[in-house]
Input
Amino acid sequence: MQLDTLNERFTPAGQVGFRTNPDGLLFADIDNAHASASLCLQGGHLTTWCPKDQTQPAVWLSPAARFAPGKSIRGGVPVCWPWFGPHATQSAFPAHGFARATAWEVTGAAALDTGTTRIGLALVPNNATRAQWPAQTRLELVATVGAQLRIDLTTTNLGRDDIVIGEALHTYFAIGDIGDIQLLGLEGCRYLDKVDGGARKTQHGPITCAGEIDRVYLDTAAECVISDPGYRRRIRIAKSGSQSTVVWTPWTDKAGKMGDFGPGRHGQGGWREMICVESANAAENTVTVPAGGRHTLSVVYSVESL
Output
């Protein structure tokens, strides 16, 4: 859909406007009484969200993020689908699936009575995605932007056979400094430690960060809370339709090899100003969607004073 058509059809109460970046990617910018946000139509990728009562965004976007056709964006809320991590049998297929670098189309937008804004998207299949995922499915994302951010990711199985999906909303949260925060809510959970070769471990106490972390917490629907003294706030992460939580910080060496984290506000590396807490269905928590059925992974993010 062309830019002019989008701006004619999907601009409820002046709360949504569409634009293109210099590389031709389409964005929806949302601004209402409660919050502002931006969403890239490539990947169905929410890039920013900042409640109006916050001086800093709650969702982090790298200042060095690359916005280019077919490339994933560093930061925001990447959509991992229909698998999480490497493909089970095809090493040439992209990690975390193809959804985050594929075109999506706008299906609707509305200004709600609460003063929040809802926008809906659907992934547009192409020859490359069909070659990687021949199952007949429809993937939809609905973002409701306000003082809270809600995202619903729905997979509908249009085929005659059951399908198995892995998925995640790979959210980067903005924090004061990675060395100061605590992540609460996963105490006592079993996890796969990918930094330690996939060893199975149990979480004791809150999560703190003093080095690279890449963990898949299993069999948990728990709400998580990022306690951040640097920004004097808590970010709450509530979810449904998700049985895994992934926690990730790359730390110095890995972030340096990736090259798109930027120097950060204080020149110590942009990676220090984010942590990924991903609501997922990964590892042994993949989801079977029956023929004709659907599955929705939902998250609600909120911010409160510490």
